[in-house]
Design a protein that fits this description.
Blueprint: H1 9-20, E1 28-32, H2 42-48, E2 52-53, H3 56-64, E3 68-70, H4 76-79, H5 95-103, E4 110-113, E5 121-124, H6 126-131, E6 138-140, E7 159-162, H7 176-200
Parallel strand pairs: 1-2, 1-3
Antiparallel strand pairs: 4-7, 5-6
Length: about 210
């Protein structure tokens, strides 16, 4: 799916939708960035909700055990984008497609609308992020101005649209050009789902 909102509430919302409305219910296993387990307390939380570091081996092991894996191919490029770039899909990584081909796993595109409004980013202090060994250091309308209270998201209503599963064939060792063609198909499907959700949304906050 597409990724946004500064913190991964969108991942939690997708998981909630799959548990409460999925037929049958599924619990998706999230793949986190490498730096997340370094965060105090969050690393314990991540472990207890079933999240794992997003290494290829972890993903392959989960898929071989029949798990549903939640992937956001934009990564931090999506989650930390500014409000002016909302719902503009950023560059997708290629790794998820190679893993899908390696494990013969179908890909379900997911379009998420609502995450861009939960924490409106107006700037990104990359020099400070580099100093703190973080991928980004976003400034939102409420954070860090309001301190810890600024981390509370706005009450944005989510629209989460699941597309039909797509089954790709081929070798995971194909050159980047052929992998990118398959990735673009997934990206285009997600873009269409986002457009449908935006069309159906009547208002941002209710």
């Amino acid at each position: 799916g597409n990724h946004a909102g500064q913190i991964a509430i969108d991942a939690a919302m997708v998981g909630t939708a799959m548990i409460l409305e999925g037929v049958p219910p599924r619990v998706p296993r999230g793949l986190g960035e490498f730096w997340l387990p370094r965060l105090p307390w969050f690393n314990i939380y991540m472990d207890r909700i079933g999240g794992v570091v997003g290494t290829p081996k972890n993903c392959v092991d989960l898929l071989h055990h029949g798990e549903a894996v939640s992937v956001f191919p934009e990564g931090v490029r999506g989650v930390n984008k500014l409000y002016k770039d909302r719902y503009k899909l950023q560059r997708f990584g290629l790794g998820f497609m190679r893993l899908a081909l390696e494990t013969d796993t179908p890909i379900v595109p997911v379009g998420i609308v609502g995450s861009e409004e939960q924490a409106i980013a107006i700037a990104n202090l990359r020099p400070l992020a580099k100093l703190l060994n973080m991928p980004n250091f976003p400034i939102t309308l409420t954070w860090p101005l309001l301190g810890p209270l600024g981390l509370i998201p706005f009450p944005s209503r989510y629209y989460i649209y699941f597309g039909e599963p797509i089954h790709f064939t081929g070798s995971p060792d194909e050159d980047d050009l052929h992998i990118e063609e398959k990735v673009d198909e997934v990206k285009n499907q997600i873009g269409r789902l986002i457009d449908d959700a935006k069309h159906d949304r009547k208002h941002i906050y209710w």
